Amino acid sequence: MERPTTLGALRAAGYRPRSVRDELRENLMARIAAGVPLFEGVIGYEDTVVPQVQRALLAGHSINLLGLRGQAKTRMARGLVDLLDEWVPVVPGSPLNEDPLEPLLATTAEALAAAGDAAPVAWLHRSARYVEKLATPDVSVADLIGDVDPIRAANLKIDYSDERAIAFGLVPRSHRGIFTINELPDLQPRLQVALFNILQEGDVQIRGFRLRLALDIQFIFTANPEDYTSRGAIITPLKDRIQSQILTHYPTSLQDGMAITRQEAAAAAARARVPELLEELIERVAVAARDSEYIDAKSGVSARMTITAFEHLVASAELRALAAGDAPEVRMTDLLAILPAVTGKVELVYEGEQEGPESVAHHLIGKAIRAKFPEVFPDPELIRRRKLEDVYAPVVAHVAAHGVELLASDSTADCRNRLEAVPGLGALVDRYAGPEPQDRAVWMEFVLHGLAEHNLIGKEVVGQEVSFSDLMSGLFAGDEEA
Fold first, then answer.
1. What's this model's pTM, rounded to 2 decimal places?
2. CATH number for the domain running over 250-376
3. What CATH superfamily is the domain 7-246?
4. Which residues, other chains included, contact 275 with Cβ-Cβ below 8 Å and sequence gap of 6+?
């Protein structure tokens, strides 16, 4: 449909102004009726966060999304743009995206009245109606609200109190749109004071001059609970004026976490197939990190950790494939390549600093393997208590007698041959895991790691080279190194 280009044509087309909150509300209702999800690519919030956001939008509330790092707060804020009308009419040249039928500034109203029905009309796409600002120490009132431009005042020969002398900041320029402030507690208190006047009274005060503007803005804030104590706080008057505070969270299931990682690391996933076992182990590393006594729980463990870990996993397989001339094939030894992703994404407490970042990362990988192993194979603890048949005896005996060495640089064929040489290992995997043929070697290697984590065999790791041996000789080797 052709969009009107003059004020008279706009009126004739039956256009009626409506507020941003009405837009969001009505478009949300239409989306719900059509069965379209509110957010694309946001996984795991369907029964928790999303209904709360929907209720807040239906109520016409400003929103504060409160949660730890990597919980999709900014993604959700940006996703609300899709609930705006695709195109809205604006006055050409206006700094505030003014509606031709409801101008904000006196100068705009005068210009429209003088031009009458011939006044030109422009159209603004919804993508241009979203403004986002990260709260940093250098943010000023001028950035957010605006400031007097003395050069403009001198050129126009007007008083500083004249609205034409004002260079408007980000908030007024977000009129008829969505304005998001990320990490709100980091914003200085005096700037938060400037915001709550706009939220409640609609006043804009610049250099002591008070300007009454009926700004129409949907405010979205994001905050990390850690910020409340270590860096700043949301001042009480502003917190009182934010109508809905919604708590976000990390994935509540492994499947949700794996789906998020797979979605965000799609480019890496397209370069090499990653066995589902390794996808799950990466997610279990994140779960272990969030519960670890070595890691600051208040800081959180971002979903970015699992995404970068996935990418490291694929890159490790690619590096080996380039050297050996193989196709990239991800295997268990590549799990040791995720250390940079883990050490760079967690905040250690004192005990963790004493252990060292890499030791903590190895500890988390070990916990992930140990947790997964009894879900597929007989629990070694029950075997120790003689409540189950010892199905691991042939494998343990061979490793104790001959050892097994797995190198990250091994070709695919060499790795498989080393694993197949362990008596009973393949039969154990076939019996309990029943993997796809291409994943059989991964599961065979997983069994060795699982037995080591349950102290049935010894394990020594140097870089990405893993040696399995008799448990006692491994312990003596550790003592000699100490």
1. 0.87
2. 1.10.8
3. P-loop containing nucleotide triphosphate hydrolases (3.40.50.300)
4. 330, 438, 439, 442
